[in-house]
C-alpha cells in the first residue's frame, strides 16, 4: 500500500480545567502561536480548531475553554463550547497539571470525557515545575481512575515529550482525508486573531480584577494608501474603574498593550500596521445575550 493511501486524519478535543496549559500545548504541537496564552485562568473563550499536518497525518485539535463552574452567561457559553467539542471526535486529550493535586474539577472533566466513548490520553503537563521523582505518583493516582489509551508526562512550556503526544495519537487514528490545506493552521479569521492578540497583551498588562471583564472586538481592518493596514479595535470593560486601569496613567498601559500587540499582528499579517485601540464601558456585558453575540460568543 502506498504511503498516500495510509494517510490518517482525525479530530481530537483537548480538555481540562482552567489554566492547565491547553493552549500552550497546542501552540507547541502546531509549532506556531495559534491561541493566546496567559497565566490567568479561562483565557480561551471559544472552541478553536488548530491543525497539525505532516507527511503521515492531519490532526485537527479542538482547543477548548477550561471547564469550570460558570458564574455568568459568558461562563455558560464557554462551558457549552468545551462540551460541544466532545461530539464527533476521534480521540480526546485530558490535560492535568503535575504541580497541582487532583481535585473535583479534574474529576468533573474526566467524567465528561468518558461519556464521549473515544480513546482518552492523559497528558500530565507542567512537569518542569515539579521534582521528576514525583511524576510516577501522579501517574499512579490517575491510572486507578480510568483505562487511558496512553499517559504522557510533558512540559508544554519547554517542549519536553510533546512530540510523543502526536506520535501516540497517530497510532489510534484511522485512514482519512486531508480536511485542510497543508499551510492552514487554524479556522479562525484574521479579525478574530487580531482581537485575541490584543486581549492577550491586555491580560498580561492589567490587574486581576480586569481580565475576565474584558472583551476585544476588531471593528475595522483596511489597507491604506501607504500600504499600512489600519486596524481599529475596541476594548470593552464593565466599569469605569476598569477603563482607567486599561488606559493607565497618561495612557501608559494602553500604549504598552498597543506596542506589543502591533508587533505580533505585523508578524501575523506580514504587513506594517497602524493599530488604533479604543476603550469603552458596556456594563455587565458578560450577562447580556446581545453583547455576547456582538462580540462573537455565539451558539453554533
UniProtKB/TrEMBL annotation:
Family: Belongs to the TRAFAC class TrmE-Era-EngA-EngB-Septin-like GTPase superfamily. Era GTPase family.
CDD domains with a match to the protein in the record: Era, KH-II_Era
Domain KH type-2, residue spans: 206-283
Keyword Iron: no
Membrane topology label: Peripheral membrane protein
Keywords: Cell membrane, Cytoplasm, GTP-binding, Membrane, Nucleotide-binding, Ribosome biogenesis, RNA-binding, rRNA-binding
G3: annotated segments: 63-66
Keyword RNA-binding among UniProt keywords: yes
Protein name: GTPase Era
Function noted in UniProt: An essential GTPase that binds both GDP and GTP, with rapid nucleotide exchange. Plays a role in 16S rRNA processing and 30S ribosomal subunit biogenesis and possibly also in cell cycle regulation and energy metabolism.
Location in the cell: Cytoplasm; Cell membrane
Organism annotation: Megasphaera micronuciformis F0359
Stretches for region G4: 125-128
Gene: era
Annotated region described as G1, given as residue ranges: 16-23
Lineage top rank: taxon: Bacteria
Domain Era-type G intervals: 8-175
Transmembrane domains' residue ranges: none
Biological process annotations from GO: ribosomal small subunit assembly
Summary of subunit composition and partner proteins: Monomer.
Primary localisation category: cytoplasm
Residue numbers spanned by region G2: 42-46
GO cellular component: cytosol; plasma membrane
Chain positions covered by the region annotation G5: 154-156
Entry binding sites for GTP: 16-23, 63-67, 125-128
GO terms of molecular function: GTP binding; GTPase activity; ribosomal small subunit binding; small ribosomal subunit rRNA binding
Amino acid at each position: 500500500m502506498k504511503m498516500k493511501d495510509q494517510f490518517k486524519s482525525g479530530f481530537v478535543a483537548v480538555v481540562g480545567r482552567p489554566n492547565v496549559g491547553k493552549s500552550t500545548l497546542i501552540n507547541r504541537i502546531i509549532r506556531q502561536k495559534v491561541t493566546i496564552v496567559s497565566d490567568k485562568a479561562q483565557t480561551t473563550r471559544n472552541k478553536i480548531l488548530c491543525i497539525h499536518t505532516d507527511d503521515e497525518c492531519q490532526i485537527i485539535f479542538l482547543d477548548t475553554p477550561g471547564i469550570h463552574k460558570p458564574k455568568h452567561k459568558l461562563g455558560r457559553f464557554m462551558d457549552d463550547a468545551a462540551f460541544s467539542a466532545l461530539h464527533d471526535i476521534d480521540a480526546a486529550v485530558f490535560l492535568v497539571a503535575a504541580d497541582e493535586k487532583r481535585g473535583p474539577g479534574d474529576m468533573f472533566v474526566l467524567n465528561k470525557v468518558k461519556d464521549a466513548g473515544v480513546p482518552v490520553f492523559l497528558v500530565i503537563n507542567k512537569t518542569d515545575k515539579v521534582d521528576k521523582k514525583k511524576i510516577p505518583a501522579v501517574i499512579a493516582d490517575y491510572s486507578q481512575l480510568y483505562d487511558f489509551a496512553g499517559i504522557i508526562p510533558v512540559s508544554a512550556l519547554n517542549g519536553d515529550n510533546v512530540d510523543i503526544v502526536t506520535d501516540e495519537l497517530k497510532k489510534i487514528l484511522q485512514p482519512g482525508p486531508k480536511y485542510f490545506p497543508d499551510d492552514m493552521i487554524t479556522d479562525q479569521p484574521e479579525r478574530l486573531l487580531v482581537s485575541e492578540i490584543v486581549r492577550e497583551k491586555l491580560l498580561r498588562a492589567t490587574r486581576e480584577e480586569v481580565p475576565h471583564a474584558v472583551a476585544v472586538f476588531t471593528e475595522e481592518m483596511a489597507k491604506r494608501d501607504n500600504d499600512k493596514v489600519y486596524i481599529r479595535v475596541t476594548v470593552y470593560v464593565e466599569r469605569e474603574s476598569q477603563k482607567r486601569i486599561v488606559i493607565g496613567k497618561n495612557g501608559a498601559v494602553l500604549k504598552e498593550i498597543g506596542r506589543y500587540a502591533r508587533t505580533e499582528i505585523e508578524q501575523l499579517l506580514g504587513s506594517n500596521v497602524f493599530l488604533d485601540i479604543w476603550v469603552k464601558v458596556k456594563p455587565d456585558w458578560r450577562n447580556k445575550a446581545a453583547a455576547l453575540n456582538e462580540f462573537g460568543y455565539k451558539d453554533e
